[in-house]
Amino acid sequence: MARALAAGETTSVELTRAALAATELVDGAVHAYLHVDAEGALAAAAESDARRAAGTPASALDGVPIAVKDVLTTTGLPTTCGSKILEGWIPPYDATVVARLKAAGLPILGKTNMDEFAMGSSTEHSAYGPTHNPWDLERIPGGSGGGSAAAVASFQAPLALGTDTGGSIRQPGAVTGTVGVKPTYGGVSRYGLVAMANSLDQVGPVTRTVLDAALLHEIIGGHDPLDSTSVDQPLPPLVEAARQGATGDLSGLKVGVITELSGEGYQSGVLARFNESVDLLVAAGAEVVEVSCPNFVHALATYYLVMPCEASSNLAKFDAMRYGLRVLPEGVESPSAEEVMRATRDAGFGDEVKRRIILGTYALSSGYYDAYYGTAQRVRTLISQDFAAAFEQVDVLVSPTSPTTAFKLGEKLDDPLAMYLNDLATIPANLAGVPGISVPSGLAEEDGLPTGFQVLAPALADDRLYRVGAALEAALEAIWGGPLLDKAPTLEGAAR
Amino acid sequence: MSAAEKLVPLDDVLAAFDPALGLEVHVELNTATKMFCGCPTEFGAEPNTQVCPTCLGLPGAMPAVNRVAVESAMRIGLALHCEIAEWCRFARKNYFYPDMPKNFQTSQYDEPIAFEGWMDVEVDGETFRVEIERAHMEEDTGKSLHVGGSTGRIHGADYSLVDYNRAGIPLIEIVTKPITGMGEKAPAVARAYVQQLRELIVALGVSEARMDQGNLRADVNLSLAPKGSEVLGTRTETKNVNSFRSVERAVRYEMQRHAGILQAGGSILQETRHWHEDTGVTTSGREKSDADDYRYFPEPDLVPVAPSREWVEELRATLPENPTQKRARLQTAWGFTDLEMRDTVGAGAFGLVEETVAAGCTPQAARKWWLGEMARRANDSGADITDLGVSPLDVARVQALVDEGSLNDKLARQVFDGLLAGEGSPDEVVAARGLAIVSDEGALGAAVDNAIAANPDVAQKIRDGKVAAAGALIGAVMKEMRGQADAGRVRELIVEKLA
C-alpha cells in the first residue's frame, strides 16, 4: 500500500475509505473494533494526501491507516481496555506510540477489542463481547489482542498495534494468519500503554506481511524519555533486514529448535506445519540444531505469579475517585469511600480481572512474598540464563507460536488453566525481555485453520526476526502462490 | 479521655521507665520539578494546576526519576555520614487513600539510597549520637480538603476536595534507629535533633525546610521500657508534628501517657496517633496491627538507580560545612559564651552575624546590633529577622561609621530607622537625614562655651577637680547639637577649657 501511495496509484483517503467500508460490512460479525473514528481517520488521510501532493510525506507509511488496541491512550478517542470500569473514558494524552503514528501520518481507524485489561488468550473476556476469528466466526481470534489481529485478518485495517505481555500479539497472529511482533522489552515506549504487567508488557506491530511489520516497528520504536525502561539506543536496521531476508538467503544463520516447545502437547497439524517451515529454513541455507531450554517448563507458573502481582497493583488506581465508572452501593444512605469503591469494582471488573487481582494481592502479601514473587523472580533469571546459553549456540530460536489452532468460543471459558496453556510458547520471551515474531506457517490439515511459526532473537537483535521471518514468508508464499490470508474465507458481504 | 490515659508526672515516669525514641522526618525537596514527572513544584498555586498524567496516576502514564532529587538525596545522606547505595531501587507501597493517585506510593523499601549514618545532637552541653538507619526517596501525596462539618476532618463533612499539586513532589524520609539512654532529656533530644536536622537541610540548600508549610514533617515514635530493661517497649507513632516545640511536647506527652497506662496495668497499643497543637494532646489514629501489609515490590516502571562512585565523591567534596561544627568553630573564633551563642542561634541570627563579621564588623558589635536592635524591631513588627530590609552589609557599614567616629549608637539607630524605611544605603541615610557627628572644632567649642556659661555651678565643680560632673555639661552640649556631637571630644574640650 505504501508503494501504491508513493506511486500515486491510490490515495490515503481511498485506502481509509476502503478500510472503513470493510468495517461497515463485516464488523457486525467479527467485532474487531470497540470504537471506530471514521471522521478523524478521513481527516488525517486528507492531510496525508496533501503532504504527498506537496512531495513531503512524513514517513514511509504516511497515509496507510491503522487500528490501535484499546489499551493505548488516545486523545479524543475512548480508551476502555475492554473494561466497564473505563467505559467512556477519553484520555487527555496520547500514548507515545500513538503520537508517533500521528507524527508519521498514519490515520487512526479506531480502537480494537481486547480481553479486559489484556487478561486472556481469546478476547472472550472483553466486557463488550468477544471478537470472532475471521477464518471461522465460531472460533476465538486469540487474545488478548484478538481485535487487532481480527481487524487485519478481515481486511478492516492494513496495520494494527497490539501489546504482548505473555503472547498477546504473537498468539492472535498465529491463529488468525497474521504477522505479529513483540519487540525487545524497552525497544518500544510503553508510555500510554495501560499496564497489565509492566515488566512484561510490550507494544508491537500486527500486520499482513513481515515487511509491513518492520516499517511500522521503525516508526513506533526507539528511545522515549517518558519511559525510563525504554532502551536508549538506535533501533537495528529492521526494514533493511526484512528486505534482505525476502531474497531467501539465510546462509550462515544458525537456528535452534527449542526442544521443550516442539513436542508434547502440540496439535499434530501445528507441528507438521512447523516442521515444514524448519525444512524451508534449511533449504534457504540455515543450519538447524536442537537446543534445550530446561527452565522453560516453569515459564507458565512463573508468569502467572509475576503478572498478577504487578496487575493487582496497577489496577488499584481504579477506585471510582477520579475517572471512569462510579457505582453507588444500593440501599446505603451515605456510603463511605470504601463502599463506593467496592460497589464500583464489583460492577466494573470482570471475573478474570478479579481472579488475577486476588491472586496477585495474595502472592505479594507479607509472609508469601518470598515463596511466590521472590521465587518467581529467581526462576525468571534462570529462564533468561537459558536464553543466554542458547543464543551462544545459535542466532535465533524457533518454535510453533501456539500449541493449537483457534479453539471454539466458550470452549475454555470455564477452565482458566487450559486457557493459560495457550501462551506456553510465547511467555518465555516476555519473562526474558527478548523479541519474538509470529509468521503464518500454513493451515493445519485437521481443521484448516492457521498456524504460526515463532522466531525468537536475543535482546536488541530484533533485525534477526525480520530477516528470518521474511525469508520464511517468501518461501511459503512461493508454495502457496500468495499470502496465506488470500485463503481466508470471504465473509458475507465483505469486499477485499 | 479514658481513665487509662491519666498522665504521670515526668519525674515519676523517669523513676520507673527508660524512654526510647525514634524519629522519622520527611523533607520536601525544593527541586524545580516533581520526583517522577516534569510538573512544577511551586507552593501555593491554584489547586490542580501543576499536574500531568503521571502525577495524577492516569492509566498508562509512567514515572521517570528526577536526577536532581537523587542528587539532593545523596547530599543529605552524605551530610548524615551515610553510606550511599551503589545500586538501589524504587518499590511500590500499596495502600488505598483518596489523595493518592495510583493507590500505591512510589517509595524505597529494602534498598534505600542512603543508610547507616549518624548525627551528633547537643543538649545543654551534652552530646547524643543519633544513629541514622536510612534516608530514602519517595513521592508526596495530594492533599484532601473536607468541606462542611465543623472540624475540617472527613467525619461530618459534606464532601471532600483533593488537590494533587503536591502529589509527586520529592520527599526524603530520614529514619533514626531507636535512640536510648536519654532519660529526662528525651523530649529535648527529640527537639534538638529535628532542629539540627533542619539546619543541616537548610545549609545543604536542598529544601526550604519550613515546618509551617509542611516542607519538614516529623513523626515521633516513642516507647517506654521498665528501667534497666534491654527490651524496647511497644511504641506509638505520632504523625506529622509540625513545630520544634510540638516535637518536644509530643514526646513528653506520650511518655506521660504511656507511663499512665503501664502503671495502671494496661498495655500500649501499637498505633498511629494525631498531635493536637491547640490542646497539647495526642489522640488515637488508626490501629497499626499486623494486618497492615503494604505488599511492597520493586517498581517495574523504573530502572534501578546506580550512582557512580565518582558522582558520590564529587558530592562529598562539595558538601557545605556541617552546621554544628561550623557553629563550634565560629563560637571559638568570635569568642562568644555558650549563652551568647545560644541566643544568637535561637534568634535566627547566626547566619546574619556570620555575614556581618565577614563584611568586616567585630563579632560583638554584629551580635549587639542583630540581637539587640534588629531582633527587637523584628519582634515589634512581627517580621522575620531576615526580612527586615537590613542586610549584614548595612550593619557592618553602620558599625564602621561608628568606629570611625561619624556616628554614635544613638545616631546609628536613626540610620537603621532610615534603612527600614527604605531610604537607601547607610551613607545615603546619613546624608539625607544629616546624621553625621559634628566634629567641626569651632561649632563644638561654641557649644561647650554656651554650656559652661549656662551652668556656672557645674563648671565650678569641674574646676574644683570633680571631673565626673562633666556629664551634665556633655548632656547640654549634646542637646544643643541634637545628639550629633562626638561625646569623647566634647569631654576633652570641657576639661581643656576648665583646666
Give the number of DSSP strands of chain B. 14
Cα shape of chain A: globular
pLDDT averaged over residues of chain A: 96
Radius of gyration of chain A: 21 Å
Element-level helix/strand string of chain A: HHEHEHEHEHEEHHEHEHHHHEHHEEH
Q: Approximately how much beta-strand content do the residues of chain A carry?
A: 5-15%
Q: Span from first to last CA of chain B?
A: 81 Å
Helix percent band of chain B: 25-40%
The number of E-state strands of chain A comes to 11
What portion of residues of chain A is helical?
A: 25-40%
Order of strands across the widest beta sheet of chain B?
2-5-6-9-1-10-11-12-13
Main features:
heterodimer, A: 496 residues, alpha/beta, 16 helices, 11 strands, 11% strand, B: 499 residues, alpha+beta, Arc Repressor Mutant, subunit A, 3 domains, three-stranded antiparallel β-sheet, 14 strands, transferase activity (chain B), ATP binding (chain B), nucleotide-binding (chain B), ATP-binding (chain B), Gln_synth/guanido_kin_cat_dom (chain B)
